Here is the input.
Amino acid sequence: MGVQAIHPAPLHGEEEVGPPPPPPLRRRRLSPLLLITLNSGRHVSSLRTIDSILSVFDNRTDPSPLFVESRISSSAPPPPTPRAPRIAYLVSGSKGDLDRLWRTLRALYHPLNQYVVHLDLEAPAAERLELLARVGDEPVFAKVGNVHVISKANMVTYRGPTMVANTLHACAVLLRKSKDWDWFINLSASDYPLVTQDDILHAFSSLPRNLNFVEHTSRLGWKEGQRAKPLIIDPGLYKSKKSDVLWMTQRRELPTAFQLFTGSAWVVLSREFVEYCVWGWDNLPRTLLMYYTNFISSPEGYFQTVICNVLDFATTAVNHDLHYISWDNPPKQHPHNLNINDTAKMVRSEAPFARKFKRDDPVLDKIDLDLLGRSNGSFVPGGWCAGEPLCSDVVDEPGWLKPGPGAERLQRLLKRIVWSNKFVQNQCLAWVVPSRAFMEYCVWGWDNLPRTLLMYYTNFISSPEGYFQTIICNVLDFATTAVNHNIHYISWDNPPKQHPHNLNINDMAEMWPLSRANSKGMT
Here is the structure.
């Protein structure tokens, strides 16, 4: 006897209800995988069955997510921690500099950075080949691949434009070798670090990546007559043997198409500014490179004049070269050679670099031991170091930094020169015509500074030469708008007297080119 389904009798007043009708057919889009699965099943034979399966998804009341991925919190992940900055170094030397260049390179090394090392054409071929061999034989350099030797050496003349050309060459190589660096620093074999690379990278992590550390001034002083007006030729441009620059009998006047600036030859440049100098999407970097071809000590003026004549970059210039250098007063051509008696002054300067040092001077051993924690020519210990002996290998994550006391010193220096009013007061912007917003501030003075300074300058001789300047440079909102030029042609004695010259028809030749240059720049 077969099994018979038994249905309960309907209650009084109820109609007998048959099987529920199938749900209405709805047009559905199925993935090819789902269609194949459904149509290949033995018990799935109709669209009704397909719809009944899909209705499980449509009509489920379980609020819990079906897929495990949905159970993961959909809140946005925390923002990534800013990566440690990377620095691209040029370390250059000449004849007899192989060993101290090698020492400086090892004291500067960090796997995150990039390095170009260059011994110029005056160095014997044996020294240049030895440098190439040392870099190739160093296991850490070989593993990381971030030390590059300029094999086709340049002739570099001291005080000549070939020094600038060599620096730009290194910049171009570094731009091509790596897209992953933030600042360029040029050093010589007679420079030495006073802090570890972990210290520098840690301290620079808090800085805007567009800052440029370029010591600069538009007050040429004695350099106007001894640097800007003489004409020289650098034999390194066309000779294969080094010789001193050639002096021409002719002299030239100061340029009127741009303003000259001077400063230190040692710079820390942002990648953005380096790209501008090398690629030059307007013509100023190339124009100035040609102008400085006949300029004595051009490394002390080229980058300063470029950055201070381009408004986009002038506001990024920090007036410091991050070096401790001991000069005579007034400065001579060369600074003092530092020795062990200068150690305390170097540390107090809080600068990350110092120069200049004699080869293997005992002070370098003291810096290694006391400031860098380095001995026996090893690398400077840092968060990247692994292996036995220490720093003979690189950890998997070399971005982990171990800053020490040097980072604290450098951060104090950066606080003084970047995170203070000194930064905006020392910018090298170039003209001054007060804007309406600034004049409203001076007249209405919604804080009390304009009135305070007005009273202060009541007892100040020649107060018109200082009142507006002092206001604008002490108010951060306006200091970044100040351009260092008064849009006037004025003829002064040198040094200036109380009054300028009265101009006459003989001054037209001087006034006319300047007025054309100024009007062209203002349009």
